[in-house]
Design a protein that fits this description.
Helices cover 38% and strands 12% of the residues. It is of the alpha+beta class and 354 residues long.
């Protein structure tokens, strides 16, 4: 640090202002004690609700202990940034059109990891310019961090019954990020109240009933997990429940009353690319690997790879109403080199009596 010690309360206020200048809707500060979250985390892991996400179990309680994850951490700056692209096609209409592909709203533009990470690093650079060198590390859904719990403790919102963070002014359609620091910044007051009341719309609407009880999700049934995290075959019993959701699922957010207050993103990077908000399943299924890699460059979707992309689309096509176009598209990959793709295509063709 510079020779004179910074005025920490003033610095905290400046950090929040700088964060908003960088495009974050809100920024708040909390300490590192998340011990209250440890019992719930352990119970969730012991129930096997994390599925194949072994990294969650591998890191264990380090997820709830920021100072162990990054030694020297004493404060965490939590931020969020809205991501809904402006002017997207009507969500209900796309979900109702079984021949179209529904892609989670967060994945329609560029990869949020890069966008938020770059902005958080700029925030760190701004702090360093002000006070000199300090210890810090940026996180954006990239390490064993209890992001929602940190944001809740920092006062940015409360955990909804679907387990996502909710904010009274922004709903839940936003990305969360953190800046771990060794600065003893004054913490903000945590959110004391949960404003979901008796509402259970998110639980009721879940296509696979993955929200097994309020505030608890069995990832093994969650469509986001099945289409993104799961590497192998999608359980056959769950496939019809996916409908046309081929990458992620927003149902629990779409029915949430608090998302009446969700705002469109101002970030150009989150604008829709390649018409993914309103596109035919067959069109996407016809992309070869080179086309997929080219069109998805810079997108969060790229990380699942072409094989799982085709797996998901095959399920979507299997759930669509039978048409010559859909059957013909599926038959083009009946002998695909990938066993995973062949299996899901065969299932889809069987659904169409082909």
């Amino acid at each position: 640090m510079k020779s004179s010690e910074p005025d920490l309360p003033a610095l905290a206020s400046q950090i929040k202002a700088w964060a908003q200048e960088l495009g974050f809707a809100r920024a708040a500060i909390t300490g590192t004690d998340l011990s209250h979250a440890e019992p719930g985390l352990l119970a969730w892991l012991e129930a096997g609700f994390h599925g194949e996400m072994d990294y969650m179990a591998r890191h264990g309680l380090k997820r709830a202990r920021p100072a162990e994850l990054v030694p020297g951490t004493v404060s965490v700056i939590s931020v969020f940034m809205p991501y809904l692209p402006a002017g997207t096609s009507n969500v209900d209409a796309v979900l109702a059109a079984d021949h179209k592909a529904y892609i989670s709203r967060y994945a329609l533009g560029r990869d949020y990891h890069k966008v938020l990470r770059n902005r958080l690093q700029k925030l760190a650079d701004r702090i360093q310019t002000e006070i000199g060198a300090f210890g810090h590390r940026v996180f954006v859904d990239s390490a064993p961090v209890l992001e929602v719990e940190i944001a809740k403790q920092a006062g940015l919102g409360w955990r909804g019954k679907h387990t996502l963070l909710l904010n009274r002014e922004y709903g839940s359609f936003f990305f969360i990020g953190e800046l771990f620091t060794d600065l003893p910044l004054p913490p903000d007051a945590p959110e004391q109240n949960e404003h979901c009341g008796r509402c259970t719309r998110c639980i009721t609407v879940c296509p696979t009933q993955a929200i097994v009880e309020p505030y608890k999700v069995d990832a093994r049934r969650c469509i986001s997990y099945l289409t993104i995290e799961l590497k192998g075959s999608i359980p056959e019993a769950l496939r019809p429940m996916l409908g046309n959701r081929v990458y992620g699922c927003d149902d629990c957010q779409l029915v949430c009353p608090w998302n009446r207050f969700a705002v469109d993103s101002k970030e150009a990077d989150f604008h829709v690319r390649h018409g993914l908000d309103d596109v035919e399943l067959v069109t996407l299924f016809n992309w070869d690997e080179a086309t997929f890699n080219h069109n998805m460059a810079g997108s969060a979707i790229l990380r699942i790879g072409h094989e799982r992309w085709l797996r998901n689309l095959a399920v979507g096509l299997g759930n669509a109403c039978t048409s010559p176009q859909i059957v013909a598209a599926l038959k083009t990959r009946e002998n695909d080199p990938s066993e995973l793709v062949r299996e899901h295509v065969a299932w889809a063709l069987k659904r169409h009596g082909a």
